[in-house]
Amino acid sequence: MELSKRVETLTPSSTLAITAKAKELKKQGYDVIGLGAGEPDFNTPDYILEAAKEAMDSGMTKYTPAGGIMELKEAIVRKFKQDNQLSYSTNEIIVTSGAKHALYTLFQVLLNDGDEVIIPAPFWVSYPEQVKLAGGTPVFVSALEENEFKLTPGELKKAVTDRTKAVVINSPSNPTGMMYSKEELEALGKVCLDHNILIISDEIYEKLIYTSDEHVSIASISSEFKENTVVINGVSKSHSMTGWRIGYAAGPEEIIKAMTNLASHSTSNPTSIAQFAALAAYEADESAINEMKKAFAERLDTIYRLITEIPGITCKKPKGAFYVFPNVKEAVKMNGFSNTDEWVKAILEEEKVALVPGSGFGFDDNVRLSYALAMDELVEAAKRIKRFVLNHQ
Ligand code: PLP
């Protein structure tokens, strides 16, 4: 069967591919440590599970409005007010099947064939694929590692053409864990306003920050910024709810309405039970989040220390999310490999540690390590990577 042109170049996500390979080795009986995970390792907090059970028991198992139940939209409105000093009406919110589908739907309603979306590299693997699936063209702009992998206004300006429709900002970032300051966001946003470019602000890691840096939503900088931004967020990472598939978008009513219409013909609605679970997540205080955050912060300190002790590996210390993105160029060279992908493959085969090569994120000299796993496993993984590097010198 001839498949559509649209999916011709579509490849499976590199993070999922490495996870699959690690699982295969595990199945063969090997003691594999997977550092590829894109999800918190904690259970979803009990009070959220209880809310889901209650929703089922009370018959909340039917279709809901396409854009989500009103109670959840209202809770999201409150969340924006409290956390981001942003005032949205419920008409400016859509609840989606995960943040990923919020982005997918957004690109579908936004892009015509050939419209360009600027994607700063390193980037989360799904942005370019989703842009292409919507007929758009991803335009990659490599940020400098010296600048903590952050895009500068000058770099952004240079990438703008008369086809540029939007730019994606992801802070804290997957895969780098870096964050933009308010001043940096303001400078980038001004370029967008000057050139009539929509800002897509993916804030899914907002709750996972381990420094005193404050998360700033670019939409909150001014009303002009707000009118020119779609914020993407969700409960997957903050509340360890990746499998529940609840995310959302907030932005101009016209865009949200189009997204809701599209959802009505695609997903119909996000799972009813999961919506009630997400409502409970937002109605509770943040003590469960803070517990997870504390564990992540300790692991970050440990993995950062251990990984930077390895010869040939350097690393900017991340501020948020649950990834480190060290530069391994020297180690790869020192170990006699021609590229990072080969080096990563050899570490998996020899030491049974699964890393994600940076190539999938648009940065060939780096690897992504997730620290969403138990401390003893992290320590052991770092030990094995070190042994590999030293053994191949
Ligand atoms: N945005 C970024 C930067 C992510 O890393 C992820 C998940 O890996 C998502 C969005 C998607 O989150 P969700 O599970 O809510 O679809």
Mean pLDDT: 96
Estimate the global geometry from the Cα principal axes.
Answer: globular
CATH superfamily of the largest domain: Type I PLP-dependent aspartate aminotransferase-like (Major domain)
- How many strand units? 12
- Rg (C-alpha, Å): 21 Å
Low-pLDDT windows of residues: none
CATH architecture of the largest domain: 3-Layer(aba) Sandwich
Name of the level-1 CATH class of the largest domain: Alpha Beta
> What does the largest sheet look like?
7 strands, mixed
Total number of distinct structural domains: 2
By DSSP (H or I, 4+ residues per run), the number of helices equals 14
Any ligands, ions or cofactors bound here, and which? pyridoxal-5'-phosphate
Distance between the termini: 49 Å
Fraction of residues in H or I helices: 40-55%
